Amino acid sequence: MTLARLPISVFSITMGVGGLALVWRDAGHLLNAPAMIGESLIGLTIGLFLMLLALTLVRFAQAPKRFLRDAKAPDSMNFITTPTITLLLISAGLAPRSAELGEAVWLAAAIGNLGLSVFVLMFCWLPQRLDIAQITPAWYVPLVANAVIPITGAQYGYDLFNWMVLGASGFFFLALTPPILLRLFAHEALPETLKPTIFIFLAPPSLCFSAYVALNSGYVDETARLIFGVAAFMGAMVAVRAGHILVHRFSMYCWAMTFPVAAFAGAFMHLHWFEGVLATQIAAIAALGLVTAIVSLVFFQSIRAALRGALY
Q1: Residue 209 near residue 218 (C-beta atoms within 8 A)
Q2: What CATH number does the domain containing 149 carry?
Q3: Which of 159, 163, 21 is nearest to 90 (CA)?
Q4: Is residue 68 part of a domain?
Q5: Would you give the DSSP letter of residue 250?
Q6: How far apart are the first and last CA of the chain?
């Protein structure tokens, strides 16, 4: 484990912890959960992000050509947007304390994330003529995860911009799902290290649901319920394989499970905020417990791996 091998996907750690932090903050408002947990996790996310950003900048300064070559490799390029997605989550964490700072961070992260999305599409995917065996659910990350922009930014206005971003995210969710499913159904199984990326199926419909509800002033209408139905089906599909994947030997790709489950739990929080019935409350509590358990498990596995020098 050396700095020269530090992968860009290491920011999936801060995505997972940041997603958990915002879910706990929502739980504080909706379920009377201790507010200190969410605030502490937001602080942890910021600390981890600053540390990983510093290490990444040092690595880039030492060998910029190698860094860019590694970032464009098939197993890394889909995680290029993870730093800016983390910044979007951090902006939501900062907003209650300083709306001006939160908005500034959100604007910078939103522009950066969209720019990196275009970079992945035009300079990583298209020129390389990728083989279908290289397609994984991680393909959703650089384009569909743009839905985090309206989720975290609806509070600042920018309605036209946020709706356009959600539309683009929904388009790429629909466009990428057929090749990803074809790769999983009709070709060889995913390598063992990539099997945790199956959890990423939870993220696109969950994020699109939460973004739509946020832009719809919190109202869960028929369209929102349709999107949530897709998220629920994806949840059932992932649950079938969850037991096998959760006992999988640790790798950095295990962090790919965390943010999608947090997005799924966040969608349940939004649903419960509108419906406010016992069934949605129970589901929200269960989702909160699930994401907390998964992030905690992967976090402690990461510490053990780091102590062995085998984090990445």
Answers
A1: no
A2: 1.50.10.150
A3: 21
A4: yes
A5: P
A6: 6
Count of structural domains, the chain: 1
pLDDT tens readout for residues 187-223: 877 887 888 888 999 999 999 999 999 999 888 999 9
Sort residue 129 into left (φ over 0), alpha (ψ -120 to 50) or beta: left
**What span, in angstroms and rounded, lies between the C-alpha atoms of 255 and 11?**
9
Full-prediction pTM beyond 0.85? yes
Count of other CB atoms within 10 angstroms of residue 192: 12
- CA-CA distance, 78 to 278, in Å (whole number)? 39
Pair 284, 272: CB distance under 8 Å: yes
Beta strands in 14-66 (DSSP E): none
**Token pair in block for residue 251:** 């790798």
pLDDT at 112: 94
> For residue 97, what are the contacts with CB-CB under 8 A and spacing of at least 6?
none
Cα distances (Å, whole numbers) of residue 149 to 88, 113, 168, 206, 284: 7, 9, 11, 14, 23
Q: What is the predicted pLDDT for the residue at 312?
A: 64
Residue 309 CA to its chain's centroid (Å): 26
Which residues of the chain, if any, have pLDDT below 70? Answer: 1-4, 242-248, 310-312
Position 15 scores a pLDDT of 94
How many whole angstroms from its chain centre is CA 48? 16
Q: Are 296 and 44 in contact (CB under 8 A)?
A: no
- Domain with 253, as residue range(s), is 3-307
**Residue 312 belongs to a domain:** no
